[in-house]
Amino acid sequence: MNGQGLRTVLLIAGAGLVVLLGQAIPAFFADRMPQAPGEDVLALVLGDARLEFSRSLEDKAEEYFHGGVRHIDCTLQSDAAEHAHAEHVHGEHEDADDHDHDHDAAHAAEAKTAGDPWQWIDGHVHEQAHRHLKGDQTVEVLPWLWAATRMSPKNIQAYQSSAYVLSYVLDKPEDGIRLLEEGVRNNPATPELDFSIGEVLFNRLHNAARAEPWFVSTREKCLAVQNDEKHAEELALLRLRAVFYIGYLAKQRGDLDRVRACLQEAESLNPQHEIVRNLREMLNPSETKH
Amino acid sequence: MNVRACQIRALAGLAVLELFRRKDLIVVFVLSAVILLPLTVLTPFGVAGASRYVNELALLLVWLFSLVIGLGVSARLFPPEFESRTIYPMLAKPVARGTIVVGKYLGALAASVSALVVFYLAYALLEGVRQGLWFPPVLLQAFVLHVGFMAVVTALGLAGSLLLTPSANLTMCGLTVVGMLFFGQRLPALAAAQTLPGKAVLTLIHWFGPHVEFFDLRQRVVHEWPAIGWGVCAVALVYAAGYAALCLAVASVAFRKKRF
After folding, report:
1. Where are the domains of chain B?
2. What distance in Å separates the CA atoms of residue A245 and residue A202, rounded to the nearest whole number?
3. How far apart are CA A290 and CA B8, in angstroms?
4. Is the ipTM here above 0.90?
5. Which residues of A touch B47 (CB under 8 A)?
6. Cβ contact (<8 Å) for A68 and B46?
7. Which chain B residues touch A140 with a CB distance below 8 Å?
8. In this structure, how many other beta carbons lie within 10 angstroms of the beta carbon of residue A211?
9. Which domains does chain A have, with CATH numbers?
10. pLDDT tens for each residue of B127-175
11. Which of B55, B186, B199, B227 could form a disulfide with B137 if both were Cys (CB 3.0 to 4.6 A apart)?
C-alpha cells in the first residue's frame, strides 16, 4: 500500500472512530451524563450577540414585508393591520394607493438627483416604491422570522411577528399558538407573549374559555415586573388591555363584580384611556350613551 | 487591423482556458450547491411556499463568487508572467503592449462572463423549478448589468495588477468594490453630513470611484419588481464601458512604462 492509500485508510478509520465514540459514549454512560442539557452551539459561540443577530434577521423580515424596501417607518404587525383596514374601507382604491407610493417615490428620486448623473442612474436602477406583501405572499417573511426565533429565543418581537403572520395572515392560528407557547417556555417572565396567545385564541379561534387564563397570566406577569421603569408605560398599557379582556369575558358570564373590579384597576392605571370608557360602558350602557 | 484582432483573440483565448484549467469554477459551483440545496427543502414553521430567501442567497453567492472569479482572473494575468519571465517571449513578438493589455483584459472578461453564464443558468433553473418563473425580463437585465459589473471589476483588477503587488491589488480592489456596493448609493448623503476634509474625500470618491452598485439588480429580481427601462440599462452599460476604458488606459500606460 502506498503512502496516499495509507493516509486515506487512516482518515476513514479516524472518521469511523469518531462516529462510533459519538454513538457509544451516551449509551455506556447514560446515567453519568449531565441531566440538564447544556447551551447549544449558537449560544456558546455568539453569547449575547445572538439577540442582535436575531433583530437583524427580524429587520430583514420587515424589509421583505415591504417588498424589499429598507428603512420604511412602519412595522409588519402595525402596517399589515392598517393596510388591511385601508383595504377594507377603500376597497378598489387600494391599487391607486400603491400607485401614489410609486408616484411619490419617482418625484423624490427626480428631486434628489438633479445635476448628478450618478445619482440619476442609481435613482432609476434602485427606484424604491413603497409596496407590501399581500395574502399568501406574506409566507416570504417566515424564513427570516423563523431564523430570528432560532437565533435567539429571547427575541419576543420575532415570536409575536411570526405568530401574527401564521394566525392572522396565513390562517393557521393553532400553529401560531404553538409557537407563542414555545416563546412563553423560553421567556417565562414576559407578559407580551401570554397576551398574544390570549388574543389569538379569542379573536381567531373565538375560544373565550382557553383565552381567559392567558389574559389573567398577562396581568399577573405585568404586576410581577411592574418595577421595570424602562418599560413601565408599555407594561401599564398591556395590563390595561389584559384587564379589559378579563372584564369583557366576565361581562359575558354576567359577573358584574369582576367587571367593576376591572374598571377600578383600569382607572387606577389610566383614567382617561378609551379602554376605561369602554369598561364603564359595559357596566352602564344606557348612562354612557347619554 | 486584422492581425491585431487575431492577436487579441489568441491572448483572450489563453485567459479563458486558464480559468477552466484551474477548476475555480467547479469549486465555487459545488460550494454554492452545498449551501443552497439544504435551504431549498427548508419549511420554516412547517409552512412551505417561501422562495425569495433562497433566491436572495443564491444571488448573493452569484455576486460573491463572480467577484472572486473576476478579481482572481484579472489580478493573475500579469504577475505570474513577470515571475516566471514568460512575458519576455511575448514582448519579443511583434505585438504592441497596448494590444497585450486589451487582449488579456478581454480574455479575463470572457472567462468571467462564461462563469457568469453558468451561474445565471443555474439560478434560472432554480427559479423556474421552484416558482415556475422561467427567464423573466428582469433576470435578463440583471445578467446584462452583471456583465457591466464584471467589465469594471476585471479592468480594475488588471490595472491594479500593474500598479500594486498581487496581494495589495486583491485587497484594494476587493475593499473598493465591496465598499462601493455597500455605501456607493449613500455617498452624497454621507458627504453632506461631514465637515470639510471628510466631505471633500467622500465627494471625490463619489465622482471618481467605481459605482458598481449601479449594476446590482438583486432586489428587483428577488422581490419580483418590474424591469427597469432598457434606456437606463444602456446608460449604466455606457458607464461600465467608460470606466473600464479608463482603467485600461491607466494599465496600458503603466505597462508601457514598466521596466523588466
Report:
1. 2-257
2. 9
3. 92
4. no
5. 139, 142, 166, 170, 172, 175
6. no
7. 50-53
8. 22
9. 189-290 (1.25.40)
10. 888 878 888 888 999 999 999 999 999 999 999 999 999 899 999 999 9
11. B227
